User: Fold this.
Amino acid sequence: MDPYQPTKDDRFSFGLWTVGNPGADPFGGPVREVMDPCYIVQKLAECGAWGVSLHDNDLVPFGASAAERDAIVKDFRAALDAHEIVVPMATTNLFSHAVFKDGAFTANDSKVRAFALRKTMDAIDLGVELGASTHVFWGGREGAEADACRDPRDAVKRMRDAMNFLCEYVRDQGYETRFALEPKPNEPRGDNYFPTIGHMLHFITTLDHSDMVGVNPEVAHDTISGLSFSQGVGQAMDAGKLFHIDLNAQKIGRYDQDLRFGSEDVRQAFLLVRLLEGTMGTPPYEGPRHFDAHAYRTEDEAGVWDFAKGCMRTYNILRAKAVAFDADDEVRDLMAGTQSWEIDPLLSYSRDNVRKLRELDIDLDGIARQGLGYERLDQIMMEYIFGVRG
Assistant:
C-alpha cells in the first residue's frame, strides 16, 4: 500500500475555483473546458480528497434567480452526499464584477459597500446550508493604486464596520460560522490593505467580536514579499487565530502563481508541514489542509487531477519526513544542546526572580564561544528532505 496515498483522514480540501480553473491568464483565454461543480466533487473524491470549498459564484452564477439557485444547490448537495465530500469553507466573490473596481467593503461609494454586505450575507447563508463552518474574506480589490483617493484610516474603519456588521448577522441568525481574513500585499490592486498576517492579527483585536474572527494565510501571499510563511503561521497559531490555511507554492517577487504545493521552496514547505502537524511535540493545526492552487496552463483535464494528487502526495511525503526528522536522536540532541533548564523558572516575573537574576553568574564569554550546531541541524534537515536519511 502506498503510504502517501491521501485519505479522508488527511482532511485535504480544494476550492471549486482551483481544480476548476480553465487555464486562462491575462495573455490568453481558457485552454480547458469548464467543469460542472458536481463532476468536480466526484473527481476529488476519486483522488482521495475530503472536502471542497467555494466562492458563492463558483456554484451559483451571478444574477441567478432564486429557483435556479435552489436547483443548483440541491444537485450539489446530492453530489456531496453521494461522494462523501464535505464543505468546510465558503467565501464570497467580491472582486470579479466591475462594481468592485474600487473595492467592496472599503469602496468610496456607499452603495457598493451596501451591495457587498448583501452579497456576503447571501454567501454566508449558502455556506451554512452546505455545512461550512468557516467563511473566508479575501479583500482582492480592497486597496488602491492612486493612494490619494481615500484616507487609509477610512479604509480600515469601513472594513471594521463591515466585519462588525457581518459578525452581528451571524450571531443574529444563530449560525456557528467563524470568519477567516486572508492577507495579501498586492494584486490585483497595486497595494492591498492589510497586506500581511501581522496586519490582520492586529486588525482583529479592534473588532467587536474578535473571538469569531481569525486568519486564512496563504503560502503565495507571504512569499510574494519574501516573508517566511512558517513564521507568520506560527504567530497566528500562537494567537489561536489560524482558522483556515491556503496551501500552494510561489516564487519570490512574481505575480500570484498559485503553483502545486511544494513545487517551489521545498524547504519552507517542509517547515510549514512540520509546524502544522506538530511533529516537534507542539499542538498541531486541526483544520482543513486546503489547496488554493491550480494546474499549469499546459495541462488538459488529466493534468488537473495529476496536479491535485500531487498537492496531497507532496504534503504526505513531507509529513512523513517531518515525523522522522523530529524523532532523530541527533536532531533532538542538537535542539536541546543549548538549553539551561534550571534558568527557565527564573524567567517568569516575581520580585524574588528579579533578585535571583541580578545575582546570577552568567559566563558571557563562554556562551559567546559556544557553537550552536545549527549548520549540522540544517544539513540533517536537508538530508531528510533529499531522501538520504529516514
